[in-house]
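User: Here's a chain of 88 residues. Predict its fold as tokens.
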Amino acid sequence: MTELRDTGARYEIDDQGLTCWADYRLDGARIYVDYVFSPPALRGTGASGRLMTALAQDARDRGRTITPICSYAAAWLKRSAEFRDLVG
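Assistant: Prediction complete.
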């Protein structure tokens, strides 16, 4: 799995030498995912999905729920049988 970095305001992963990120806010045990970004060269490669997988696993490990503000994050979570239960 790709190594996830948490800057306190952004989750990041590196893929093919480029960085994908998800801006977020934390309110107690709830993560608000405001924006997911993948560089144009990585679009269509699954990089954003790998970011969301790592983010969701981190949320689960920490006992957090996810409220997706970003439409990509919302659609990804809706499609994910494994992490759909984290939406709150």
